[in-house]
Amino acid sequence: MKDNSSWSCSWSSWKICLLSVLFLTETITAVKLPPKLVVPALFAFGDSIVDTGMNNNVKTVVKCDFHPYGIDFQGGVATGRFCDGRVPADLLAEELGIKSIVPAYLDPNLKSKDLLTGVSFASGGSGYDPITPKLVAVISLEEQLTYFEEYIEKVKNIVGEERKDFIVANSLFLLVAGSDDIANTYYTIRARPEYDIDSYTTLMSDSASEFVTKLYGYGVRRVAVFGAPPIGCVPSQRTLGGGIMRDCAETYNEAAKLFNSKLSPKLDSLRKTLPGIKPIYINIYDPLFDIIQNPANYGFEVANKGCCGTGAIEVAVLCNKITSSVCPDVSTHVFWDSYHPTEKTYKVLVSLLINKFVYKFV
Quick check: pTM over 0.70? Predict the structure, then answer.
């Protein structure tokens, strides 16, 4: 993974700057874009990390449009975001000066102006493996592309062909997936017995490359593709695979790193074969792993349990206001539920990531 060395060599200075920003201000100032860089909108595809409500009207157990989800969102509303507040799609859009909330494409209250500045097509529980979304009855990546086709036609009808082409070519597209493939499909459910982990992560990386290629066919040029996180250190995976001490499940982490090692060169290859495309690999593994291993350095106290319920297993429908209490102070926790980080953690990560890739789109 080409970016790993740059993370480790700059962390000490990043931490000082980051903590100063987090503790002295309530909101993070928008990043200063390069003079020639225009980003009219932000779009998200993938899974629950950037799902802003697409699963609300889907018949699935992978839902969170109820409290305590959203307790730190604007007005304390449960929007379908798998978090106490906002998720990376929202925070990145705010950093880029676009807007503070990226609505779900299927939001019934969506307005025409929302379309012009970006929406999320992501569905919690989805993944690169086509079996992954089927196992939990959510929206596959292929179906997300179908919604995007529909989106393109709507925007063309609103602002015309030329402006539509400009928005698609110059906007930032996020692709975040892979965790559910590894944690659920491969290890927990074992739905792919014919694959070893090497061939399975190849299937995943090939699927990611194919998805970016399809986006390119629609005129997309700026794509930020997130690698897999240290999935074995997520609270639920500690519970399921970390033994009696709930250590990080190293097998899961090694799988994530193996996938990442294949994804990054795949994206580099696309730069050579698809003229004008700028796919950027985002190394999320190392910064999140450092937060989990050294929470105090980032202003956290608890990194092995979520804030909702016991923090060891509750996620989606298991994290609810009837059976699950909420920890006294969400800001002390790296994770909100047993699978998803808190808004504060996402803010830390976005602060670390934003300058890693924005200038690469110039």
Answer: yes
